[in-house]
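User: I've been trying to design a sequence by hand for this structure and keep getting stuck. Would you show me what you'd pick, starting by listing the structure so we're on the same page?

Assistant: Good idea, let's start from the same input. This is the structure you sent:
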């Protein structure tokens, strides 16, 4: 436990103008190094959190938080599954869907796509695709009219616009006198969407669910039921609850399983970036070691006098731990303040820099996220601040221990 005089002397050494200006410069450099490392960590992790949140929202804008399906060619009792799912307190929307693969042709252009049959009146309850329509609207998908809504990249690949015709070819065979033939159906493009994810904008086509049931010969069956929750992070828990409650053999999956590899890769990248940037703080903390070593050398006579007055080695050690802790604390606080301010103002600062220097960091022609998003998580700020402070405190131990080993007679021999 620090005594008052140990704290007083440690703070005095920190504030006092030393005869050795180089020591003061190294001390200031150490403090600024810690501040720079902490600010960089907070800012970079906030930007990565922003990208992660933005990508998650775009992915979940097209996919549901959880999905109920049944092994086999389709789900028969989907009305019962929807009714049971709606009884869960965390479920805020549910909708059936039909899904299959097919080929889309227009003139000489041919491309594959994931064809998804939806109920336009219920789609807004489980996805945000209706809010990303560039042309037309989902309500134009009327049963029996064979309308189709394409992603903008898919429409560009086929060279079609709203009002044009496309032919959908599915692997389901029709038996004819000439043998088995694939199913072909002409559709009219009634809308184009863009969710900002190439995977969906290039590979997904939406049609009415009843038209999809006819196209894939499902009768009254559907592929499954999609569910939206009030909290997406409860998806694994709710999926387990529904799996136990549903009668018969159903499969309940959630978005963490469907996109597990992608989100694990993003999370791993975040952890690696944290470790790399923490090295900046570690380097600044080691500068504290060199600072205190030089202070100890400069204060040999003072230490010897304190020892002759009755100060114990532990007291001498505490004096220099206080001095190093002050440097680390000041650097950490400055870094936290700068990092938080920078992270909160990234959406304003980056456009200003782009405007002043006539540059563009994320071109919309190349990247689907053309602005740097930022999402500050206070848990990250706490972990970063604590890590920086602990590293700074550890850096004081060796110089403080060395000071406590000073022998008064040896130190005062030439004074």
């Amino acid at each position: 436990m620090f005594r008052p005089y140990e704290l007083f002397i440690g703070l005095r050494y920190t504030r006092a103008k030393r005869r050795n200006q180089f020591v003061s410069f190294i001390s200031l450099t150490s403090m600024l190094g810690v501040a720079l490392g902490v600010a960089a960590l907070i800012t970079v992790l906030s930007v990565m959190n922003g990208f992660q949140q933005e990508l998650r929202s775009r992915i979940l804008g097209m996919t549901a938080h959880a999905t109920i399906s049944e092994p086999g060619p389709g789900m028969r009792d989907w009305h019962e599954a929807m009714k049971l799912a709606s009884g869960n307190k965390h479920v805020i929307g549910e909708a059936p869907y039909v899904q299959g693969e097919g080929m889309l042709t227009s003139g000489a252009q041919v491309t594959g796509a994931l064809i998804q049959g939806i109920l336009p009146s219920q789609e807004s309850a489980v996805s945000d695709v209706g809010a990303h329509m560039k042309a037309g609207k989902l309500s134009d998908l009327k049963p029996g009219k064979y309308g189709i809504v394409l992603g903008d990249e898919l429409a560009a690949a086929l060279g079609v616009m709203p009002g044009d015709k496309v032919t959908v070819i599915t692997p389901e065979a029709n038996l004819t006198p000439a043998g088995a033939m694939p199913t072909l159906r002409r559709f009219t493009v009634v809308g184009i969407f863009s969710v900002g994810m190439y995977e969906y904008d290039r590979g997904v086509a939406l049609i009415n669910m009843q038209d999809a049931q006819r196209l894939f010969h499902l009768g009254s069956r559907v592929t499954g039921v999609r569910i939206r929750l009030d909290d997406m992070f409860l998806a694994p828990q709710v999926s387990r609850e529904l799996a136990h409650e549903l009668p018969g053999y159903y499969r309940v999956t959630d978005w963490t399983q469907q996109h597990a590899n992608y989100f694990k890769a993003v999370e791993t990248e975040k952890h690696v970036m944290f470790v790399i940037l923490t090295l900046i703080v570690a380097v600044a903390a080691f500068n504290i070691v060199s600072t205190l070593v030089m202070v100890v050398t400069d204060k040999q006579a003072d230490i010897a006098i304190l020892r002759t007055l009755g100060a114990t080695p532990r007291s001498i050690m505490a004096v220099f731990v206080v001095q190093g802790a002050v440097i680390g604390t000041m650097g950490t606080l400055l870094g936290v303040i700068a990092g938080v301010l920078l992270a909160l103002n990234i959406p304003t600062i980056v456009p200003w820099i782009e405007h002043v220097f006539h540059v563009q960091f994320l071109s919309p022609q190349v990247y689907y996220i053309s602005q740097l998003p930022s999402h500050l998580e206070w848990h990250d700020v706490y972990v970063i601040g604590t890590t920086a402070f602990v590293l700074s405190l550890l850096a004081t131990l060796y110089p403080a221990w060395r000071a406590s080993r000073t022998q008064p007679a040896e130190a005062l021999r030439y004074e």
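That's my pick for every position. To get oriented when you compare it with your attempt: The chain has a mean pLDDT of 82. DSSP finds 16 helices and ten strands in the chain.
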